[in-house]
Amino acid sequence: MELGICEYAYLPLRAGMSHRSEMVSQVLFGEVFEIVARHSDWTKIRLLHDNYSGWIETVTVSPYFGESLDASYVMNRYVVCDSPTMLIKNEKLQMFIPKGSLLPESAFVDRSFNIGANNYYILSDLSERGGMDVRSRIIADAENLIETPYLWGGRSQWGIDCSGFVQLVYRMSGLLMPRDASEQVKEGKTMSFVMEAKPGDLAFFDNDEGNIVHVGIVYSPTEIIHASKKVRIDRIDHNGIYNDELKKYTHKLRTMKNVIGG
Fold first, then answer.
1. Is 162 designated active site?
2. Does residue 81 have an active-site annotation?
3. If you ran DSSP here, which 8-state letter would residue 65 be given?
4. Of the chain's two ends, which shows fewer C-beta atoms within 10 Å, N or C?
């Protein structure tokens, strides 16, 4: 298996071999991927952590020379949870990387690491992730993303979609989730009533055809935090999400899932 690693803050992952092609997701700094096919200008990749596939520009591909990997690679890395996080590349290039980026565990102690021939030094402080239970940490990380603009295919604080929001927030608490809401809904234990849900649980919403089209994180017994136009908190009940500004329901509730346990 030929592997690559992202050395950019993020890379657009596109459905086809064109800048005009839909951005279906993003590849964040430090994420490793399998190289599936190569063309002169575009390379098809498969992300190891969620098996998501798409195309990135060939010029952006950095070869990965580390050990043989699978999705557990994410769990063996330090997940960046602070914003902004600044790196210096090769003692001259300053760059910021988003929340959810992956660094070697040693970077937390040494403040420096190498990717191939490139050296990185971490200028920002990196937070330890102790002192909170998982549910409290999920809510705190979700709150820190409030007002993040909506971006189809986005996975960072610079622009995010609903399932990217869930995937990012859960990753920062050490929980791996699929990329799309239609796959995330297959995880965890189904709850029968809204009032069973606890902060940090997930709520899923469908369209008239019954397809899952939206997901959010339960914030309180009557509130949900989700990415719709922006990351925001709205009311939720057994019917769905009620937007006070629009004075109407915007999403129809399908099911609630407990992925965390407890």
1. yes
2. no
3. -
4. C
